[in-house]
Amino acid sequence: MSNQFVVIDPLERIDLLKSLASEVRVRILELLHREGPRNVNEVAEKLGLPQSTISANIQVLVDVGLITTKSQKARKGSQKICYTTFSELLIAFNDRDRAQHKGAIEVAMPLGLYTRCEVTAPCGLCSKDGVIGLLDVPDTFLEPDRMRAGLLWFTRGFVEYQFPNNATLAKAKVEALELQLELSSEVPGTSKNWPSDITVAINGQDIDTWTAPADYGDKRGKFTPDWWKLAGSQYGDLTTWRVTPEGTFRGGRKVSNCALSNLGLDEHRSIRVRIGVKADARHPGGVNIFGSGFGNHSKDIVMRLLTE
């Protein structure tokens, strides 16, 4: 049984809320919370339901991160043990217009305006009108036309953006830094099971390595242009990181001890954000980053400085 809680933004995690719109799935979570880890057969027996029904519903809960599973040796082969991830879920309705009010400084960075890059093929850039440069040629990432990019992808390496540190101009003390972008793993074609360890760093400090679960191609992204082949990456997960004095949080859950003080914001006129896949990543599955004109959100990379 987990004693952790998570705070979710309902508009960012509609998939999670939908997963709870099932009595069977709620009963599975309640059972695992009350009695601890169980294998699929035990859950089916306890709830008096067919194993196939339990397996299908457990997979839904795994997909949204409410359950984790581990394979364990059994008398005949192996068995899947199910664990709850959280004991409490808190829903927080965030103020989406806070950047327009005092206390928040927001900058939206176009996807193609990175200032440094080192990438390996397969890789590429697209605008809403077509492919930019040559596919699978890393030097294409230096093309001036990259400024129009709405989708970029690569296998290893990074892209780095330089945001203005407008808090220093305003002489304001930063209480938290938020970074939001839509991204997924990258595989030639698409795959619903293709984990990739994507590392995000700010001012040279790794704030988190997130394992993106998939390269989504089951349906066209809401904003992905019609000319982009359906067999290509369609959309990603809109992911928000928040760095506070207590550490770094993703989706309301603490993911690292990298705190605001580690970023040295008072010492720099700019804030460097690096997104990439390291050469020694456990799951080196590449990355897709979606910007304006692509994916399910059509958003630039957004940084918010929340000030006093």
UniProtKB/TrEMBL annotation:
Keyword Transport: no
SUPFAM superfamilies recorded: Winged helix' DNA-binding domain
Entry keywords, A to Z: DNA-binding, Transcription, Transcription regulation
Pfam families, per database record: HTH_20
SMART domains: HTH_ARSR
Superkingdom of origin organism: Bacteria
GO MF assignments: DNA binding; DNA-binding transcription factor activity
Keyword Transcription: yes
Domain HTH arsR-type stretches: 5-100
PANTHER family per UniProt: ARSENICAL RESISTANCE OPERON REPRESSOR ARSR-RELATED
Entry protein name: Helix-turn-helix domain-containing protein
